[in-house]
Specification:
Length: 199
């Protein structure tokens, strides 16, 4: 588990939200590790989302997760894609067609209970990722050559099912300032609601 803090002040939250967060402590938000600048992508690179991180300010603690690295796939690694199997959507390497669904499922079973203990108030996922994408991820046929459907990445699907009320978005949609502002407000509201339940 990795947690990091942003270095810039909040950009999108209103004055009331900023005051509330500073008064009540640190919000913890789950995030795809590559968006924090960690070099965990299949090619050894990252997708640092600086403007997005800056919107939350110094009171946010980021809980970084890379499902593919934590599942033991390594870096760099052969890229993977979602593939429609006979019984379910599978996670398969693009070239060698190795089925990595089982180790990903094992990672999910181990990691979700740990994330519950983190008491997250939101989660930002990597768009279009076969592990982390929360929507419209390409699903290929069994040979990997034709797109036949779209869905969620395997980790994202399990996360959303496990925490149905948790505010979840991807960094692609949050490039829209209006969606980012709304997401920030949802995160703050979720934090306040869960905090009040404990008082």
């Amino acid at each position: 588990m990795t947690a990091e803090s942003s270095d810039a002040g909040p950009a999108e939250a209103g004055p009331h939200d900023r005051e509330t967060i500073r008064d009540r402590g640190t919000i913890r938000i789950g995030i795809s590790a590559c968006l924090l600048g960690q070099e965990v992508r299949y090619d050894g690179g990252h997708k640092h989302a600086g403007l997005l991180l800056d919107a939350f300010g110094t009171s946010v603690e980021w809980v970084a997760v890379c499902p593919e690295v934590e599942a033991g796939f390594g870096t760099p690694r052969e890229p993977v894609q979602l593939s429609r199997g006979d019984d379910a959507i599978r996670l398969v390497t693009v070239t060698t067609r190795r089925d990595l669904t089982a180790p990903m499922d094992e990672f999910v079973r181990r990691r979700l209970p740990e994330l519950r203990l983190e008491e997250l108030s939101g989660y930002i996922l990597k768009a279009n990722s076969p592990s982390c994408g929360p929507r419209e991820v390409k699903v290929f046929d069994g040979h990997g050559g034709t797109v036949v459907d779209s869905g969620r990445g395997l980790f994202a699907d399990a996360l959303i099912r496990e925490f149905p009320q948790l505010p979840v978005e991807d960094e692609g949609r949050l490039a829209d300032p209006r969606l980012l502002e709304e997401f920030v407000r949802r995160v703050f509201a979720y934090y306040r609601a869960t905090k009040n339940k404990k008082l």
